[in-house]
Amino acid sequence: MKASPYAFIAPFFIVFGAFSLVPLLYTAWYSLHHVQLSALDQQTWAGLDNYRNLFSSEFFWNALKNTFTIGLLSTVPQLAAALWLAHMLNYRLRGSTVWRVVMLTPYATSAAAATLVFVLLFAPESGMVNWALDLVGLDPVNWRESGWGSQAAVSSIVVWRWTGYNALIYLAAMQAIPTDLYESAALDGAGRWQQFRHVTIPMLRPTILFTVVVSTIGATQLFAEPLLFGGVSGTKGGSEHQYQTLGLYMYDQGWMVGNLGKASAIAWSMFLILLVVAALNLLISRRLKRSSR
Q1: pTM of the full structure
Q2: What is the pLDDT of residues 128-152, one digit of tens each?
Q3: Is residue 254 within 8 Å of 232, Cβ to Cβ?
Q4: Closest to 219 measured CA to CA, from 81, 84, 123, 76
Q5: Is the pLDDT of residue 98 over 90?
Q6: pLDDT value at position 292?
Q7: Which residues fall within 8 angstroms of residue 213, CB to CB, at 6 or more apart?
Q8: What does the pLDDT read at residue 209?
Q9: What gap in Å lies between CA 3 and CA 233, rounded to an integer?
Q10: Is 95 helix (H, G, I), strand (E, B) or coil?
């Protein structure tokens, strides 16, 4: 009876240790060595040289800037649209279950399939986006080669895939809000917008903070969408590295260049960024709890 609970949870910890913890520690070891993909058995101690070279590289700071920009362009519209959709679905609508399934469909679609469709939409000559721009009298945009255009195109893929998922999270949180609060607000003369502003938003603060953190983590690890969007130059993030994210930069250094030591340093830099995000989440959540008391 005492040993059986440990036996039940042992498979998770075994799998986690084999496929998460051990690679994490091994990557930390690699980041402190000069290691080439073609000669894994020939490792030389480097100390913090990989990190010094990384932080002095303009490509790293460019990838960090692109990651931040694409993350901002994808997270803000995504969460705003998800909050609006959840608010609409929170009221009694015909076929609400169907609409919820429809919103979750982009999330169930693979990143490869979604990105290939958006590549066709943003094609410079035959894409529907440039066709729509031509209808309103605007010049066509070479979305793959343009700096802001390529980042906006990649961000639109992320927005399309994750808006419905976050909307369902917001919807679940909205349905947990006591109806007494809305009834009291209605008796005080508050309309739907005032109820949304003064009742729904304050009650959703922890959920909104959670989705912001999760979306930020996803933006930091963004890889498949820019890789497939770029085609042949996908690992470089375009001809001018205009949409190369940290994930693409790590992949390029590790698998294309073959410098596993530097790629491991990039991976641990991303890990440290996520720790900072988690610390900010903890700090903000504690302040929100204090302010709500």
Answers
A1: 0.85
A2: 999 998 888 888 888 888 889 999 9
A3: no
A4: 76
A5: no
A6: 62
A7: 277, 278, 281
A8: 87
A9: 54
A10: coil
DSSP state of 147: H
Rounded to 10°, the helix 205-220/58-90 angle is 140
Sequence-separated (6 or more) residues with CB below 8 Å from residue 169: 82, 86, 207, 210, 211
Q: Count CB atoms within 10 A of the CB of residue 264.
A: 23
Measured between alpha carbons, how far is 218 from 223 in angstroms, rounded to an integer? 9
Query: Over 90: is that where the pLDDT of 10 sits?
Result: yes
Q: Any bridge partners for residue 36, and if so which?
A: 39, 259
How confident is the model at residue 246, as a pLDDT? Answer: 93
pLDDT, tens digit (0-9, with 9 covering 90-100), for 184-203: 888 888 887 888 888 888 88
DSSP-based three-state secondary structure for 230: helix
HSE-CB for 154 with a 13 A CA cutoff? 33
Tens digits of per-residue pLDDT, 201-222? 888 888 988 898 889 888 888 9
User: How many Cβ atoms sit within 10 Å of the Cβ of residue 143?
Assistant: 24
* Euclidean distance between CA atoms 8 and 67, whole angstroms: 40
Q: What SS3 string covers 179-191?
A: HHHHHHHHHCCCC
Give dist(CA 5, CA 34) in Å, integer.
43
Amino acid letter, residue 39: A
Tokens encoding 143: 């979305």
Residue 177 CA to residue 87 CA, distance in Å, equals 12
Residues in the chain, total: 293
Residues contacting 24, CB < 8 A, separation 6+? 271
Distance CA 199, CA 292 (A): 13
CA 107 to each of CA 1, 160, 162, 279: distance values in angstroms, whole numbers, following the listed order:
42, 8, 6, 28
